[in-house]
Amino acid sequence: MKMMIRYVVVGIVFSVLVALLMIGTTLLAFPPDDWADLLSRKLFDVSYYWLAGGIPLAIGAIIGISVGWYWRQHLRKIDRQLKELVKGQTVTGMAEQDIELEKINESIEQLQEKWNKLTEISQKQASERAQEREKSLQEVVVQERNRLARELHDSVSQQLFAASMMMSAINEANTMKDDGLKNQLSMVEKMIHQSQLEMRALLLHLRPAALKGKSLQEGIAELLNELLEKVPMEVQSKLETFPIDMGIEDHLFRIVQESISNTLRHAQATSLEVMLIERDGMIILRIVDNGVGFDMEAVRTSSYGLENMQERTYEVGGNFKAISLPNQGTRIEVKIPKVKSGDEHND
User: Which residue, 327, 247, 254, 326, is CA-closest to 287?
Assistant: First the structure.
């Protein structure tokens, strides 16, 4: 039974009981000479019994509706505050405290404070881990990554490019009448083209290996410039300048790398949009492509890339959202509460 109906029923029952008690007490104290006269008596052309029963019902209904509406408004406010708390937002409406809800409001304030504290601790731990990883990263590892990327670019990547050009020339000059052979040659050309995309995605994963003295905005801009040099794709970016804690920078940069790699390997996209902004105490990263998209339900449990991005987001107390539909592109959105102003960057 809904809350409003429950209060109305309770109000009516209570009013009827009070009315019956008062009428019964009055009739017992001042009994009429003829009880049958009560049936014929009227007040304002309305039967006495109708008034005796209708007035309490009306009063009870009015009281029930008023009380039900009053509590429903307060419960809605509590529900809104709890939803804001779950989303990691600042709880609003806490200044208006009623005596009846004072303890509930105090509990919500305590939950808000604990949530902020946990988020701050999580981000602090992420920063400490990022600093430890940065310190423990040996120069030989960085050099090896760069050497591997350079060799792949100078050897395998160049060979794939040459093979792609040769297959294109063969297909264009092919005058054979065997349709089966033509289809096979066309498939080989497509496979070489896909291998080129895989190689470019791998090179982007290897270089840059880390931010290394750059801010997150500078690192993303460099990554997008490298993407433009390697892939014929329209790239748009909006990277606002604001300080970000080192641990958050590291996670967001890896998320951008993972997302771009997925776009190159699977999306067949012709345009990519990257946005990094700060709004209402939230760091917002949004990556959108116009690729082939995918079925969210089919990929949700099997995509290592999406799972990795989600885990990185949760590690710094953020919210992760991926939206994709077949043939309608993919949108990745990360929102992280900025508990404290981070002024540390990779050195």
Answer: 254
